[in-house]
Amino acid sequence: MAHDPNCIFCLIVNGKADAHKVYEDEHTLVFMDIFPVSDGHTLLIPKDHCQDLFEASPDALASLMATSKCVATALRAVVEPEGLMVFQLNGAAAGQTVFHYHMHLLPRWVDQELALHTRVLGDPARLAELAEQISTALD
Ligand SMILES: [Zn+2]
User: What's the pLDDT score for residue 20?
Assistant: First the structure.
């Protein structure tokens, strides 16, 4: 598997950086966004390093997409949002800030201001709790 030693998401895949992990299989890793825009903000990444949609393999994307449905269903059951936004950014001009493909699952509520990123760290205890609850709800 291709890994970039300077990529924070590769470090998470390799266990060299911490994350509140929700799920993983051969191809995909799911964890809580450490800068959550809303409660339950979750990321899915292919374990194999690829910068963006254009570099990602169709197989990695297919696997990640199938996993996204399972995780979204569990996330919805746990957080009970009024809506769920799925987004994926390619290139700095599009707002991409970590250059390892990632899909966002973002719970949304009516009247909540629309934002894609925040620089406010999530509460670690809450992130751990959510990861545990979503993981359990996956079964
Ligand atoms: Zn990477």
Answer: 98
